UniProtKB/TrEMBL annotation:
Keyword Hydrolase found: no
Regions that span the bilayer: 31-52, 59-78, 84-107
Bilayer disposition of the protein: Multi-pass membrane protein
Keywords noted in UniProt: Cell membrane, Membrane, Transmembrane, Transmembrane helix
Domain of life: Bacteria
Protein name: CidA/LrgA family protein
Keyword Metal-binding among record annotations: no
Coiled-coil intervals, chain numbering: none
Subcellular location: Cell membrane
InterPro entries documented for this protein: LrgA/CidA
Organism, as annotated: Oceanisphaera sediminis
Cross-referenced Pfam families: LrgA
Length: 112
């Protein structure tokens, strides 16, 4: 019964986020708004962590299974992916380096 409550709370945040996204005059992912809502509720302690802990742990434990359909779907686009492989790799590496530099710089500023 506890897992059902956990999933209902998580799905409620997702559905409210999707509803908010539908009301916005610009495109924004509803799932991100739902996560921000969940973060707000947890950080203000309006929603106790115990209400979503077990359900969240279950989802995280089986996260790899949730990505299998995405990986299988990508197999249909191997020709397109192989054409842009260099661009994909260079974008990923440059993004990683940029993130590391920004986070490192922010951390240095926080220490001084």
């Amino acid at each position: 019964m506890k897992l059902i409550r956990d999933f209902v709370v998580l799905l409620s945040c997702l559905m409210v986020g999707k509803g908010m996204a539908a009301l916005l005059p610009f495109a924004f992912p509803g799932s991100i708004l739902g996560l921000l809502l969940l973060f707000f509720l947890l950080s203000t302690q309006l929603l106790p962590l115990s209400w979503i802990h077990d359900g969240g742990q279950l989802i995280l434990r089986h996260m790899a299974l949730l990505f299998i359909p995405v990986a299988v779907g990508l197999l249909g686009y191997t020709d397109l992916l192989s054409d842009g492989l260099g661009l994909i790799i260079s974008s990923a590496l440059s993004g990683l380096v940029l993130i590391l530099l920004v986070v490192g710089r922010l951390y240095q500023r926080m220490l001084s």
